[in-house]
Amino acid sequence: MSAEAIKVSSVLDTSHLNVKFPFKSKYGNYINGKFVEPLSGKYFDNPSPISNEIICSVARSNEKDVEAALDAAHAAFKEWGKTDITTRSNILNKIADKIEENKDMLAVAECLDNGKPIRECMAADLALVIDHWRYFAGVIRAEEGSVAEISNSQYSYNIPEPLGVVGQIVPWNFPLLMATWKLAPALAAGNCSVLKPAEQTPASIMVMMELIGDLLPPGVVNIVSGFGLEAGKPLASSKRVAKVAFTGETTTGRLIMQYAAQNIIPITLELGGKSPNIFFEDIMDKDDDFLDKCVEGFVMFNLNQGEVCTCPSRALVQESIYDKFMEKCIARTKAVVQDNPLKMETMIGAQASVEQMEKIKSFLDIGKKEGAKVLTGGSEAKLNSGLEKGNYIQPTIFEAKNSMRISQEEIFGPVVSVIKFKDEADALEIANDTLYGLGAGVWTRNGNIAYRMGRAIQAGIVWTNCYHAYPAHSPFGGYKQSGVGRETHKMMLNHYRQNKNLHVSYAEQKLGFF
């Protein structure tokens, strides 16, 4: 593989960030502690969403590459699965340190690969990546098993053991963070991994592995890039993995469940969402900092270009405050700065791929045809200065009904459907009228309303007077068709382990049955 970088235009210049262009011209797979050519010799081009210029080429893997990675992982598990917890914890901390030392460079790689604003990459993505590695390094040091006294000569010991080799498939919206959400607990629990990044964002994780790869024994982490049917399906359906963890769309999640059922292995699925963000009338009782925070909470549908499973893509606003509150929210949305994601002042960047941009545009057309009213935005964003070929959508607010497709189907873009509600009961009915149940937001000055709504909304996480918070010690996952299992939090460790029960008799006399 050539170490020389591909020549790109000034639009993708990173010198103002004091970071050199982070990518080599070509990346193979990371297998058994080193980068190797794909066995087919095939690569595919990786464009940056910022301008759709090619920034590198990446291995186009197939089943043979997956098998090679599984070979390496199984060989490594013989020792890694027995590694003491202190050693594993120390390695995870060293990974966090190495990432922190290079966080600006990795943030730039993420920005170029995904199209999200560099300020989000630095302040959110990489900060959370570092924190999650440290969190799982810490919690395993504090864990203890359990011992039950059955009698004075019989004891039952419960010991958590790693599953073995796991298959992990991550999405394109938070490439490094989603990889960390999966790798950190899996490694902390003593497993080895074969991970496939999304074909839309395959490169930033390769840059990360160049940094941290030598901190791990060869074969513990293996990265195989490629397309879903060619590399993802062989991994997810392999009889050689003890578990599959997947984050992505619900239709693919159903297929993952089918593969797992055939092999009778556990799964973790984090799938789609259509999260309600509910604003009660009492937020307008004062024109203060809290109201300002509520307005920001509404505009959070633009975070990461709306490419978030928990995107607050349905805003439920109480009728009595609708006009005055929406006036503030529309003004704040119009003030969102959309420009080159490599500029620190940019608030919303490029959609991750041309395909995703076209999907969002189709939903903008659907919303208009359904009779939804465009309050701001509503079309592709036409940016100049070399960004003409990039993937940009205007932040869009629709006044809609909950029955409309734009209010029921996941758009995965900077688009929100605003729906009026009468009272608490009406808000709850609308909030739960969805196939999904991943996240929700409740904004109110009344603690009793916040508690009642939080308990009654059918979602895995309900943010109260906040939104888009993803700390390591807060479990993340969905109800209904938003998935199975949880990610983050120490409970995630048990998604990567099985319980070994040792039932021991210390009595020397026989029972007397025979």
Task: Explain how this protein is built.
The protein contains 14 helices and 23 strands. α2 runs antiparallel to α4, α3 packs across α4 and α4 runs parallel beside α5. It has 514 residues and is of the alpha/beta class. The strands form 6 sheets. A 7-stranded mixed β-sheet has the order 15-16-17-14-13-19-20, with helices on both faces. α12 links the parallel β16 and β17.
Any descriptors?
six-stranded mixed beta sheet, single chain, 514 residues, seven-stranded mixed beta sheet, globular, 20% strand, alpha/beta
Structural class: alpha/beta
How many DSSP H or I helices?
14
Using the alpha-carbon principal axes, give the shape.
globular
Largest sheet: 7 strands, mixed
The proportion of residues forming helix, as a percent range, comes to 25-40%
How are the strands of the largest sheet arranged?
15-16-17-14-13-19-20
The N- to C-terminal Cα distance equals 69 Å
Instruction: Give the mean pLDDT.
Output: 97
Q: Which radius of gyration do the C-alpha atoms yield?
A: 24 Å
> Could you give the count of β-strands?
23
Q: pLDDT under 50 segments (min length 5)? A: none
